[in-house]
Design a protein that fits this description.
Largest sheet: 4 strands, mixed
Distance between the termini: 104 Å
Bound molecules: zinc ion
Helix content: 25-40%
Order of helices and strands: HHEEEEEHEEEEEHEHHEE
Strand order of the largest sheet: 7-13-11-12
Structural class: alpha+beta
CATH topology of the largest domain: Muramoyl-pentapeptide Carboxypeptidase, domain 2
Number of helices: 6
Radius of gyration: 33 Å
CATH class of the largest domain: Alpha Beta
Oligomer: single chain
Shape: extended
Number of domains: 2
CATH architecture of the largest domain: 2-Layer Sandwich
Number of strands: 13
Amino acid sequence: MRTASAGASSSAQRERAHESRLRRFEIKRSAENQERFARRNVLGFRVGGEVRRSSLLVLLSVFALLAVSLPALAGKREELEKKLPPKFRKSPYSLMSLTVGHPNDGFQLRAKRLKSSKYVRVRSSKHAYGHPALILMLKRTAKQIGRYAHGSRLLVGDISAKNGGHLSGHASHQSGRDADIAFYQLDSKGRPIDAKRMVAFDGNGKAKDGSGLEFDTYRNWLLVKSWVDDTRAGLSHVFVSTPLRKRLLDFARHDKRYKSYVSKAAVLLKQPANSSAHDDHFHVRISCPKRQKEICKEQSKRRADGDEG
Ligand SMILES: [Zn+2]
């Protein structure tokens, strides 16, 4: 009996102890909940659950990142402004798009971005910044050919980075005056297609990669003709491989409509010495804008490793 009663009392004690532990636990939980609730309200959100709290954290880190990177970007521009002669740091130059230095050693400020449209396909929007004269010219010529040879869309490769400077894969393209343009192409059955990529062609107009694609001499000539006609942009030259240059000029020479353009086109089209062949794209370059001759250098800096491309 004594053992039984002692056992009974100890089990009652255990139960009471358990109850009191439970109560303490409940009190603690409710205190924690209140605290958590208060914390949420401090932030001004009535969010619940881990998921929302973690998305809030993501949001906060994005803000933090922006707060750090925006001044850094503005800082880069300010840093570049300091390289300019005092005159060019003031109005009206401080409001203009400026192209500074050589095509292969320079930078740009307040450049214009070329965007994809009905007539233009931009391959990399991060590398589609250039001087407005160049960007507007590309838009004009693309539109002209898109209307004339119905449905044509110009594939534009790299122009320059937002502030210019070195661009991976190129020696030039540093000051917003250079742009790479894919050739218009025909499929293996001779039908005009939208260029999806840059394709290298030989002098007979056949794709070098064996894809069966062909150089669309007619549309590519229309492009060259529109560049010859376009006097607003101040186009200085168009790089293209010697065999394709010959192909284009031969085409024009044998067509009454285009004959008169041949001599001007011959001056504009050239294969740069000391550089890659340009057999998979036109590389166009505009001259320095008239009012920026003091800061803009027409020619590439001489370098041992070739200077165009
Ligand atoms: Zn290029």
